[in-house]
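quick one, two chains, predict together pls
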Amino acid sequence: MSIGEFELIRRFFTRPPRRFDVVQSVGDDCALLRPQTGKCLAITMDTLVEGVHFMAGTNPENLGHKALAVSLSDLAAMGATPAWVTLALTLPDPDERWLNDFSKGFATLADQYGVELVGGDTTRGPLSITVHAIGFVGEEGALRRSAACWGDGIYLTGELGLAGLGLEILLGKSTQNVPEAVAKLERPQPRVNAGISLAGLANACIDVSDGLAADLGHILHASGVGATLDWTALPLPSPVRQYIDMGGDRWMPLRAGDDYEICFTVAAEREIELVSKMGEFGCSCVRIGHIDQQMGLRLRQGGMVIDLAEIGYQHFPVVD
Amino acid sequence: MSIGEFELIRRFFTRPPRRFDVVQSVGDDCALLRPQTGKCLAITMDTLVEGVHFMAGTNPENLGHKALAVSLSDLAAMGATPAWVTLALTLPDPDERWLNDFSKGFATLADQYGVELVGGDTTRGPLSITVHAIGFVGEEGALRRSAACWGDGIYLTGELGLAGLGLEILLGKSTQNVPEAVAKLERPQPRVNAGISLAGLANACIDVSDGLAADLGHILHASGVGATLDWTALPLPSPVRQYIDMGGDRWMPLRAGDDYEICFTVAAEREIELVSKMGEFGCSCVRIGHIDQQMGLRLRQGGMVIDLAEIGYQHFPVVD
């Protein structure tokens, strides 16, 4: 097949306008956009590379969904409302069916949150997808990693470890039959509404892309505080409990990435306000621990307190 | 070498803040930025892939420069003032010397225009560079491809065909010794100041990345007009004239991309105003033709008028 760049963009990535604040979309040197007065822009950019972030042969509709989901998740973790995205798609050889499915996954998630694809680039090369997303958030309400305070409760949306289990299954390291674990890995739901509701309410926030221990570790490092998690409070779904009971790595739920839940801290005196807001979240949310003055990350399990530095929460991964 | 992602970002891409409107730079889920009140955002995203857009072994300092230059050139073509950029860098294996030189080329050009690198992503994979850039422009003053009018003069900054000659030299198709041609290909100067000066003055504008005939063709198509160029007015530098005199493709200057000059149209009654503004451009600028009612792109050469459709100005390249 020899589909041209312009034809490719027209057929798969040009849709009727969705937003009144897009003055010029795809089709000029730049997109032209009207930002919201009085708000900050929150911007984020993420790349997914075949063979590194996803396996060759991954369902393209899921891939289109996930490529956008990881960026919307970053916006959610700042408390921002998503608005506009651009897509840089590098393809070895344009395949119409692949493009059709990829763009469908991307567009369906974009529509769910009123997000408009306003530009990007298509190039020939090894399969790789870069998404840039822009959202709005009030400067005062933005959720920063550095804002956790001693005494804050630590909360997590959704469930923990399901995407990690999905990866174990895809790699053949687990023989469990858990389609929802693979689905969580391949089609994560960014916690957009939870993030928006938390702007101005939570102190610190991060999305769980590299594993809860590593990501919470970033909050602790940036805020100059420590934390203690409560094992019994961690929202481990039954397949993950079974995985551990069957001899799987018990630290997997803390170490595995790709859950794309958000982890945040709330001042003790505002925890009642949080509970009343949870209806807006579109997902469950539980208290999994608290912020300490003592540096480091600890886990309370039974009568014991385990120092999680030992399982590598400060591990800085090589470029990935 | 096994440099970590965070160490890599800290060492090569974290610098003292440059702009007062950056609330949060590298180091959180998103960057936080304060847009200018009353202005539109102009945004653009471009990918350079090794083996497609540049050859393996390209000087990394030049590559860092060019990766940013192509995005600043797109902003210039909208009349926008550049502000913030993000960089998604995919590397097979992090090499400190390469990173040092690449980041130096990138930062030097960024500093030249007061642009700040505020975020991005580093991943492992085949060498590829995606840059996203954001600038400001008044909604009324933005330079759109669709705004060319019958009677407009057509102008071009700088010179034509030098980057194309550079490519012929690198490919061994020309034996001329013209270091400035290779330099133009590898370190194009985006016409930032010219673009800013043209906002509100020019009608249509585009940057010459795919070749003058193709890029001017986009203006004509979007505006529903035609044009006639004057061969004697084209700013061909002597090495390009020599290339043609020595039997090289005489259409090369019209067909070759990568000059990153800007081509724009100005209403006849404002051409005097343009001349008085040219001092702000930081480069030369010449009138190369005019917009016609008759569709198509023509070239006047001697007593003849040649229809340029025949040299493929409407050729839509395959994904590149």
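Chain B has two domains: 5-137, 145-311.
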